[in-house]
Amino acid sequence: MQRYTYIHISDLCWSSKLYYIVGVTDYLSAEISTSKQKKFSLVTFVDTPGLVDGDMVYPFDVNSAITSFGEQADLIFVFFDPMGQALCKRTLNIVEKLSEKCGDKLRFYLSKADEAGKETDRQRVMMQIVQELCRRPGLNKCGFEMPTIYIPNPQKPSRCINQIDEVCETIEKSINQAVQKTLDQLEKDCNLIVSTINQTLEQDRMNVSFNKSNRFNSFLCGVLGVFLPSLFILSFIISTFAPEELDSLVGEGLAKTLYFSTAIVVYLWDWIPEDGQIVFVLIFGALCYFMLFLAKYFARQGSKTLSKREKKKLVECSDYIQDVVKSKKRKLYEEYLRQCAAEYEF
């Protein structure tokens, strides 16, 4: 009976697919080990049920569950039991399917190698396993390896070579790669966050400038749309007053200014032929209406801007990432390098 063990570095990330596989969660159980040897605390092992051919019915879709776990894991260990001789078609079907998506994660081992009998018996079992694997195009790869592993029993010594230490080295190597990858990804994420904040603040400054320009255009068009017809009407009203009456009403200085401006408007009006004055009024009214329309249009073109509180939070977040998170990442990376150097010297 062949079994799969999925090795996931750090915390196990459950795939969202598993929640759609009916019955899987009812058969999950957890065991916690406090050991710190071989970086054991950084590893999560997921042991799947052994697969057998025939009419064996599982209470859930075991094939989908195993492939979903495989996509989430960092390493996939396939243990071949020498008693089963890897003749289980169901197992090899899933191994081949996993190889399509997770071929670089797969590791094959002959477990319980000390129970395979003599060396000749063990070689015969391994040859049978290799033959079964080579019959499948997805598993027929160069450089195929299948170390022999077993748990040593002092009361039952065996002359079989035990390569279980290589398993531990494979896991430790994966842990080191995961740690380095995580730290590198942390720096990339920090740079991405800071860059996004800077882009947001820069876009906000552009929006503020754009809004100011729109407000100015709206104000200018609104003033022209109201001032021009008001000046036109006021000019004809003022022209009906005598200079002495206007001086007594608004004062001599203001009266001169009003007379000067109205004289220009009246002169331009007299310059227009009588048969074209109605057309001029229509065009002038349309122009004033267009100015008011532009004022309303520019007023609606404003972009959303950040409040002072929001900008302050973004700046604080950027400073925190630059001063705290990045410096902590550097310390973690230096600590990681020291540990690697210490292990190498040891």
Automatic annotation (TrEMBL):
Protein name listed in UniProt: Uncharacterized protein isoform X1
Gene name of the encoded protein: si:dkey-98f17.5
